[in-house]
TrEMBL record:
Name under which the protein is recorded: Polysaccharide biosynthesis protein
Major localization listed first in the record, in broad terms: membrane
Membrane topology qualifier: Multi-pass membrane protein
Entries under Pfam families matching the protein: Poly_export (PF02563), SLBB_2 (PF22461)
Source organism of this protein record: Coprobacter secundus subsp. similis
Amino acid sequence: MEGKSLYKCFLMAIVLLSSCTAQKKVLYLQDVKQDTILQIQKEQEIKIQPNDLLSIIVNSRDPELVSIFNLPEVRLSAGQGTSAASSQIQGHLVDADGDINFPILGRIHVGGLTRDEVADEIEKLLKSGGYVNDAVVLVKFLNFKISVIGEVNHPGTYNVSSDRITLFEALSLAGDLTIYGKRDRVMVIREVNGNRQIVYNDLRSKSVFDSPAYYLQQNDMVYVEPNKYRAGQTNINQNNSVGLWISVASFLTTIAVLIFK
């Protein structure tokens, strides 16, 4: 009986150690203690890039005066046999040189600028050209999107209504990581000035908040690597998997018989 008790304790110890190891691989922000205060890092301002689609609306006390500077809305039909329709704001596409073709003002270079900087530049041009003295310009992204692939529950491309989204928010949109996703190797792939930048992030540590990729930018791709168990499954077909589980069940049954015999 004493031998059986020791054996049971040994098995329980193995289970507990395995559980602790699994938690260290899965839990987020493990090094953050209760009541911890972390200074919020200033997010990087989004810079306009080629192929961005911008909504630029000029406002004034005289709507008729600024109407020539605003692109008309496109009316979209809901489908054949239906009377419902919706409207969509047209956008200014940034070309390969970082320029847009703005009504009346002509070509304006916006590449590398922030939304606020573009708005200020257009306001200055409208005032200096004598077109509108009280112009207020609003600039928004129309095609801000990010992609999340790999070991997440809902991989895909997601449109973002604003130009601010964190890495955790992007993973939340994708349904969080699966149990097979590596929390310490979440890759963000970003294109900057014609170069691809790759940043690895460890979701288990508070250091993720200091990552240059914690705040995502337009067209960023998030890739969650599979762990070794998921990677190993690619070499195991369905029949082998069934055989493996049968072997495990047989092994556990044998142990149970020996313990309680």
